[in-house]
């Protein structure tokens, strides 16, 4: 799964630390998601969407490998 | 979502304070056979095992209880250290927790299989003593190492 957390974060001019605080997760979690190392839970995905004021599907995108 | 099966974060420090001296004294007890006399007691036992003759259930045996105390301390404190919540126990940390636990079980039994096959008599007995504690120890090392390296990695990013 791809995500555009880094892009959305840049649009809002947020650091990883600020986003981590808002989403109530650790900075490591934000970093791991941006690097594609961690796929968040639905709850966290919804929280991020709310923070960025966009739809979940605008931040997270399925890739072909997700169907395998 | 709070995980109910973890200790509160504030217990962790207490766990470390208890664990470190217990491990040091435990090693002294094992390797140097350090057993202070004032720990000699007659203690109740479930099964009295006699070298000559038959054993029987329930009774008293004379024993130095220093190693029993240390063993219990090491187990309890390492459980607290291992299963206290992190300051921010989010879903990713929980995932690392689970992964580390699986990894520790694999490593522990891999070592046990090798010891089964290639170590005998007293040497195997020594491995068994350590094997009582290694699973939780491997978990603690692996879990904290992972958290530490992630922290370092995320500090480089901005």
Describe the protein's architecture and organization.
The complex is a heterodimer of chains A (68) and B (158). By secondary structure, chain A is mainly alpha-helical. Chain A has one domain: lambda repressor-like DNA-binding domains (434 Repressor (Amino-terminal Domain), Orthogonal Bundle), CATH 1.10.260. Helices cover 56% and strands 6% of the residues of chain A. Chain A has five helices and two strands. The mean pLDDT of chain A is 93. Chain B has four helices and two strands. In chain B, strands 1-2 form a two-stranded antiparallel ribbon. Chain B is mainly alpha-helical. Chain B folds into two domains: 86 residues, no CATH class; 69 residues. Chain B is 65% helix and 11% strand. The interface between A and B is medium-sized, with 17 and 15 residues.
What's the structural blueprint in terms of helices and strands?
The complex is a heterodimer of chains A (68) and B (158).
Chain A: E1 2-3, H1 5-11, H2 16-23, H3 27-34, H4 42-52, H5 56-59, E2 60-61
Antiparallel strand pairs in A: 1-2
Helix pairs in contact in A: 2-3
Chain B: H1 11-31, E1 40-48, E2 56-64, H2 66-82, H3 91-118, H4 121-156
Antiparallel strand pairs in B: 1-2
Features:
heterodimer; A: 68 residues; mainly alpha; 434 Repressor (Amino-terminal Domain); two-stranded antiparallel sheet; 56% helix; 6% strand; B: 158 residues; 2 domains; two-stranded antiparallel ribbon; 4 helices; 2 strands
